[in-house]
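Minutes, project check-in
Item: structure for the 231-residue chain
Input as provided by the requester:
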Amino acid sequence: MNTQPTPEDLEALRGWDACTLANAIETFEVRLRNEGFTDGALRCLFPRLAPMVGYAATIKIRGSAPPTAAGLYAQRTDWWDYVQSLPKPHIIVAQDIASHPGLGALIGEVHFNIERALGCVGIVTNGAVRSLPTAEALGFQIFAGNVSVSHAYTHIVEFGTPVEVDGLEVSSGDLLHGDQHGVQSIPISLAAQLPAVAARISAKKQAIIALCQSPEFTLEKLRAAGAKKGL
């Protein structure tokens, strides 16, 4: 059984960039190297924010077409109870399954404040968002396919089920990490070990970088330094 990471474990993960953590995960050989991270189509809208770490709250949305009956889609609040049932902090992972993903934005100024109050620190979606100044002021990180001026007919179809966003398969409660490089899943069983491994990898990288920047650099010294795979 996986041990739930402590708040200290999560804070330690926030101290590392996504690339170094990806290298650290590779050393455990728990998954293929071409799995577990976004493909790069999503935009990190606030690259200067610190890395985000949290547990996935998964939802599926749709909104490019109006309802077939008169009126609008019903506003759902039951998914807020689902979000609060998960350990904090939360990251919303929203798969837009519409025929035209990203035409309208589910989350904007009001919802950013609601989700922040519920303990959410960011959103990952192939769909759209809006009201960017509000999110940035709250320190709410966004990875999105695009931005939109309107919410159109966007509504929640289901929540708590597995989703796929930009090639990353996510289940409810998965541990995620994201920064300007992208988003990746963190194996919960490794969460407590990864920061120390990341530190060792970083030290090796810095030693090689220091040599490359030194006036005493030679190819012989570089080969002697023994650059390891994954650096």
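Outcome recorded: The helical segments are 7-14, 18-26, 78-85, 109-117, 132-138, 194-212, 219-225.
No further action items on this chain.
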